[in-house]
Amino acid sequence: MVSDEFSPNPTENPLTQIVFTSNMISFNQEELLSQFPILSVKVHSNKRLVYLDSAATSQKPEVVMRAMNDFYEHANANIHRGIHALAELATEMYEKSRQKTADFIGASDASQIIFTRNTTESINLVAYSWGRKFLETGERILLTQMEHHSNLVPWYMLAEERGVKIDFIRVTDEGELDLEHYQQLLQTQPALVAFTHMSNVLGTINPAKEMIDLAHQAGALTLVDGAQAVPHFPVDVTDLNADFYAFSAHKMCGPNGIGVLYGRKKLLLEMPPFMGGGDMIKKVTFEGFSTNSIPYKFEAGTPAIAEGIGLGAAIDFLTSMGMQNVFDHESELAAYAFEVLTPIPGLAIIGPAPDRRGGVVSFTLQGIHPHDIAQILDREGIAVRAGHHCAMPLHQRFNLHASTRASLYLYNTKADLDALQQGLFKVIDTFK
Length: 432
Ligand code: PMP
Known about the structure:
- The protein is of the alpha/beta class.
- Helices cover 38% and strands 17% of the residues.
- It has helices spanning 29-34, 62-74, 85-104, 119-134, 153-162, 179-186, 208-217, 237-240, 265-270, 305-321, 323-341, 370-379, 392-397, 414-430, and strands at 18-21, 24-27, 42-43, 47-48, 50-51, 113-116, 140-144, 165-169, 192-196, 221-225, 244-248, 259-263, 281-284, 289-291, 347-350, 360-365, 382-383, 385-387, 403-407.
- Bound molecules: 4'-deoxy-4'-aminopyridoxal-5'-phosphate.
């Protein structure tokens, strides 16, 4: 019998011990780091790994890997179908993760949590299912200039197919949404406003609640891309009053291959299935089929079961850390990043001041290509990302082809940012 051992009880997790230092909260860093074995690997002949690429994907704590391994060792079976001990156990574990996910984001009912592969699939699901059923030629959608390609391309595809019109809420020079422009665009009576909760390039945290409120007043529905939000600060979809909310497990200490779409119940009930196959049906005859209840209606075929269980373990882990603590830690690091990076000659950070952003800091270094920067930093053991970060239109908005991005998570420290500063001085020396 599998016990709950691998889903740590938040109250018993030693990592919850919080160390108070000079009016700020920081984690018991040593114990925390010991939870992430990969952070002790050495790269490039014995260099300490400085991982500053968590916006691309986060590292995984041992509890998550153990939960998935335990599932395969003790409970592996397909879910929802088999009437045998393992099948029932696997189903129970998987569904427990769904409930944990609902609780984690404040959804009132687990049936509103659809498991997908990732944020991208969650957004595509809405564009295909809701978009193709409810949007007519000439209707409008509002996006923003700071969207990731996964919240652009599905809508472009829909626009091409259906003749739907897309408008973009402008981004100011400071890297924030122009809310006056947003209010003007709302007068065109869009059917949907789809925007990111936090930019994966600028770090900007958008005023989601206010934006959703304004959208609703104008009669529009809302979809929030929470890929960079749910991993980093407390999110409550009920408080936000979001209609759809999407995120990925792999950016929040969980495994690859599982993502989440939260949807308002009424909408999910009205929407047709996204894909057809096993599990999403109630009945199939030679004449046709009837659909299963939500959320199963949207989950055709065998899902990523171990990954779902891994997501549950990641949620337990983050809950035990406290999401407000995660945010406070990253905010402090973001402020420190500004402190160490701004004195570097020729360096320009894109996006708002540290008190209005999360732990993502993208920058340019005059005369040096971001790919060269990333390559030289890599030789020092520092992992950053260079390029357009799947936000080409946003880079175009700032007249850039590319930028270098350092992105932070709960396991990063000020020492990581000191290493980044030193690494950047080396980059400058190399190009002198
Ligand atoms: N939206 C944002 C804001 C992101 O940062 C990302 C990942 N970089 C995505 C969507 C897509 O996430 P995934 O690749 O997990 O679907």
